[in-house]
Every structure is written in structure tokens, then in C-alpha cells.
Amino acid sequence: MLKFVSFLYEKLLERRVLNSSIPLNHILLVLDETDLLLNEHEQGMEKLRHFIEWCHRLQIDIITVYIGVISSDGTDSSLVKNASSSSSSSSRLSRLEEEIKRVLSNDKTTASFVIYRHGHSHSPSHSHSPGHSGRTEREDTSVPVSVSVSASASASPYANANDKRIQISLGFGGRSELTKAVKEIVKKVERGELEPEEIDEKLIESELLFKSEPELVIRSGTTRLMDFFIWQSVYTEFYFTDMNWSKFRKIDFLRAVKDFKLRERRFGR
Fold first, then answer.
1. pTM for the complete prediction?
2. pLDDT tens string 119-175
């Protein structure tokens, strides 16, 4: 009886959310690597696949997932410079990347996906798996990076603004993203392509990897946030739940979206 009532409540929530006139086009999910790589990692990965399906069912076109990766000394992997710690976190990043590729390749939607991960090697490498093509590019140790794209997105991941897309960040935080953007701008100034006086917010935004601003951030299991989307999330709404990721349900997701649609967004005013 309880399951039946819960089922009806879930359907009612979903109908209310779908009938709402408040738009929600971009959602950001913040996770830790432990949410996906513990003994129950298959359950965690399967939950990620379900989350993507729930978003598409609510016609949310852009889904971003940030997965925080901690080095062996407890440091955010995006800040690691120690070789041994870097090697340890890199192996876990590779494992995460392969698992996520498997999940996304089995996704029944037509969404294209891009995976960004922090890199610590100067040597380039390439990866190929069924259902997608991958490209890995590594620059210096303080910035990314590795980029893997689905076959449908290999030419230009965001060629069509109306396409459904999924973007995954593996340990690549906001500080690294801003560092990379600043370095690119400095290079243009040094080449004489840009005057320092021309540097403004729009120029910095143009150099960021993630162009779209999320309307809603969902953080499961804790209130601790990473430094991801420092620039893009200034006017974003945040939703925290005590529910651990492995126990996160569709009804919890619908409650988060409903909560967002009931809020009065002020956009800094």
C-alpha cells in the first residue's frame, strides 16, 4: 500500500513539474568519486544513468555532472602537483572515465556527451570505445586536460544549441578552468592579438570550457560544495539533500526540481 501511495505521489509531482511555466534548461549534479567507485559503484553508476533519464523526461536539455576526485593526501586532485599522488588520482580518473563512458554509451537518448578530466602528463594519448570516439590532450600540469567526446559530438560538441547534451567533469575544478582561461588570454596579449584594455567579462567567459550557466545545482549526501563552476554559478539555485547518492530516488529528484520552480529568483538583485 505504501509503495502504491509513493508511486501516485511521484506521478503527481512529475505532472506538476512538467506543467510548470518556470523553465529549467540546465542542471548541475555534484558528486564525489566515492559515490560511484565504492563497492556498490555499479549501483552508483546505474543511478547516474537513471538521473540522466529523469532529466530528459523533464525536458532538461543540458546536464552537467561534476565528480570530485580526492588525492591520496586528501587534496582536491585538480590542485595536485606531487607525482605519486598525481599517479594515484590519475588511475582512479581513468577508471571513472571508462565506467562513465560505458553508462553514457548505453544511454537510450540521442544526447551527445563530453568528458573533461584533469591531466598531469605532457604525453598525448588516444582512446576508442564502441559507440563513441575519444580524444585526449594534455597540456601543462596546472591545467587540463583530457577530453573525450561521443561520436555524435566529435566534430563539434555544441554545434546545435538546441541539442541535448551531457558534460562531465572529472576532478577538473573551477580554479583550474579560470586558470586556463587567464593563460589563454595572456597568450593572446603576448601575440599582440589583444590589448589589456580589451579584457572584460565577456572575453573571460569566451575562454571558459563550460559556457552555459546552470539554473539548479543538486548536491546529494552533504552540504559541502566543490569549486566547480565558480564563474557560472553566481545566480544558480542550490538544493542540498541528506539522501546519499546510492539511495537517491526519482521522487527526491522531483522534489528538488519542484523546490526550484517554487523559488523566486532574484539574479543578484
1. 0.77
2. 643 333 333 334 433 333 333 444 555 666 665 544 444 445 456 889 888 887 788
Q: ∠ CA 95-37-60 to the nearest 5 degrees?
A: 90
Instruction: Determine the number of helices (DSSP H) and then strands (DSSP E) in the chain.
Output: 7, 9
Q: Which of 264, 201, 251 is nearest to 5 (CA)?
A: 251
Work out whether the CA dihedral 71, 77, 82, 84 comes out positive or negative: positive
What would the grid cell of residue 76 be?
582536491
Whole-number Å distance between alpha carbons of 84 and 65: 27
CATH 3.40.1180 fits 22-173+213-261, yes or no: yes
Radius of gyration over every alpha carbon of the chain, rounded to an integer in angstroms: 19
How would you classify the pairing of strands 216-220 and 165-170?
A: unpaired
Which residue reads 598525448 in cell numbers?
Answer: 124
Contacts of 90 (CB under 8 A, 6+ apart): 120, 121
